[in-house]
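lol ok so funny story. i was supposed to be doing the assay writeup but got distracted and ended up predicting the structure for this chain instead. priorities right. anyway since i did it might as well share w the group, maybe its usefull for someone
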Amino acid sequence: MKNGGGGLVSPEMMQRVFTPGLGSYGMGWTIVDGGSKIFHGGANEAFRTEVNFYPRLGRAFVLLTNEGHQVDHFVSAKQLADSVEAIVLSQTPPPVSQGWSVRWIGWALGGLVLILMALHIRNFLALRGWRERARRMKPGKRVFDIVISFIIPTVILIVVFSQIKAFYGNRFNLLTSAAYFRLGLSDVFILLLIGTLPDYVQGGIKLALTRRLQR
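and the output, tada:
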């Protein structure tokens, strides 16, 4: 409902909304330099929003960004927001070459995936003689050799999901995030898949070979 002045919110309420409380944070808004810039943003696994006001200049912009992977959130979306802000403020946008290169980050992640795949292939080939080696192992060492194939990927999963939960806070849901991983966080999903699944498979094979060894 409009007030007597014709606006949706009274001037007094607007003043309260944009007055910092603790630090630079007002009622849902971050106030910078005494009100020269007021902004708020939000994000989930696949989307990022920014709302920026510049009251002294009478300017503002809203930026809605679809994200295909986590690198988008920390690199691409931030670079895009900085460029749009520069244009709104009649400044020269930073050059594309400035800051992190998403292309090189992609190459680095791709190289890491290839390295992990090569290591797993080597480990799988080594399983051909594992039963004979295990026969000569002490029981404790044999158990450790099997268990480590489950411990390492489990630790990786716990660390990754705990960090994602810390980032998204109350918005995080384990089942939803796990089901949506391949679509919303494809880069993290690929790294997790290559970094954990082969270890679990190798652990399962070692368990099967151990049972045959005990027979």
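Helices lie at 11-17, 70-88, 102-126, 130-136, 139-168, 174-184, 186-214. The longest strand covers residues 47-54.
back to the writeup now i swear
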